[in-house]
Design goal:
Length: 266
Amino acid sequence: MAPKAAEPQGMVSPSSVKPEEQELARKREEQAALEAEVAERELRSANLRAELGAFERQYLHFVGSRYAELDEWKARLAERLAREQPENERAQQAAREARARADETKSAAGEKAAQEPRAFKSTPEMKRLYRDVAKKIHPDLTSDRNDRARRQQLMAEANQAYERGDQDRLVKILTEYEHSPEAVEGEGPGAELIRVIRRVSQARSRLAEIEAEMQELLRSDLYQLKLRVDEADKTGRNTLTEMIAKVDEQIALAKERLEAPSENSR
């Protein structure tokens, strides 16, 4: 019988690799691929948010502010009519609605930042959740430096969620920490395999979240407006300029009507 050939120096026989080590290697490859995909999707999402943010600022600056001005003139017209006809309930109601619409568009255009304060009120369930978070995540409960930093960040998020009354966010913070790779104790291929499996699960969950966020942005009125503007630009039309001209024309007409003598003064 011929002697068994020796394994080349530096190579490991597949039969000498434990099953958990083989599975760990496969899961690490899967983790790397998913994390690369997450990074790419995060970039696409960030680009879309940035583009929509820039478009919204441009729209509010050039068009939104003009709509706010137009609604203000319309409100003044309605209020003048209401003063001239104090017994006309329809005129009074129209004036109230016009003023509310003017205030709303002014706020949307960024000229009214004041918001009605909301009183804080916690529920027994919120208190129970917060206690659970504090018991399991508080940074003083660990001596590991990296874990402590992670806990500090999560406790800060938990405090903000509690102040907002955001119960879903508290549940998510607690669940994510309990199922995080950092929560797995022990060394060796077995423990590391569990940590990698959890990182894979985290990456898949984040991909699903990004997809949901992207779909919400793509369905938004702002994106649909930007889409129409971009399509018009391709044909040489400047939709924003057209909108500005149209609103300016309406503003001028409203001013003329307001400056004209009222029926009672004739």
